[in-house]
Design a protein that fits this description.
By secondary structure, the protein is mainly beta. It has a domain of about 110 residues: Immunoglobulin-like. It has no helices and 16 strands. A hairpin with an 8-residue loop joins β13 and β14. It starts with a strand and ends with a strand. About 15% of the residues are buried.
């Protein structure tokens, strides 16, 4: 009698060797390295990036260290400007109150407000001056209720062309009057920092922007 690989005792004429396919193949570990591996350089920090339609398209930078309050302050106001190349806007006012902030001293409160800014220029078209908004002649604006919009007249071409709002097309030149609800002005058109700003009231009517000194320069400002 002979013992087979499975433990069975058989006669010599019935003996069968173990088939090679019944023997498992030894698994060889073949590790694969990462291609062009680099160390992780991510920095966990508080950062911000603002994308605009001017210059390189980015304002601000990644902050490489956490901010710490080192003195006592009352109220801090931060204003963010969001430039727009079209009349559409998705900007909303944001208010943040910070109390009991950990640091070396107390922080009172912090308020952050945002508004959409339109760059205004003046150029001649068919022999008459017209307002251009972000490069578009007499563009129709969309001024959403509850939001703030600034018509920036810092460009020198605005000199002598103060911009205002009215519920009548072409404003005072069309027999209407100036609309002043939520409207503020600053500086002299054509000089740095000059603007007309409006925080659109609830249920505001359709408005028209116009030049106080010359007719036919403005356009429509819808208030959905």
């Amino acid at each position: 009698m002979r013992k087979e690989w499975n433990g069975s005792l058989v006669g010599k004429d019935e003996f069968e060797s173990k088939h090679p396919q019944l023997t498992p193949v030894l698994k060889v570990v073949d590790p694969q390295a990462l291609r062009n591996a680099r160390p992780n350089t991510d920095v966990e920090t508080s950062g911000f990036v603002v994308y605009t339609n001017v210059g390189d398209g980015i304002l601000g930078k990644l902050l490489t260290s956490n901010l710490e309050a080192t003195g006592s302050v009352g109220t801090v106001t931060v204003t963010g400007v969001i430039a727009s190349s079209e009349e559409e806007s998705s900007t909303t006012n944001v208010s943040v109150n910070a109390t009991g902030v950990a640091g070396t001293s107390a922080l009172g409160s912090e308020t952050i407000s945002a508004f959409t800014s339109y760059a205004i220029t003046v150029a001649s078209y068919l022999g008459a001056n017209k307002y251009y908004i972000a490069g578009s002649r007499q563009a129709t604006l969309t001024l959403t209720e509850g939001q703030t919009f600034r018509l920036d007249q810092s460009d020198s071409s605005n000199s002598g062309h103060p911009i205002r709002f009215s519920t009548t097309s072409d404003g005072t030149h069309g027999g209407g009057s100036e609309y002043t609800t939520g409207v503020t002005t600053n500086g002299t058109p054509g000089s740095s920092g000059a603007y007309t700003e409006i925080t659109v009231a609830s249920s505001a009517p359709t408005l028209y922007y116009y030049c106080t000194n010359h007719s036919g320069m403005g356009g429509t400002a819808n208030t959905p």
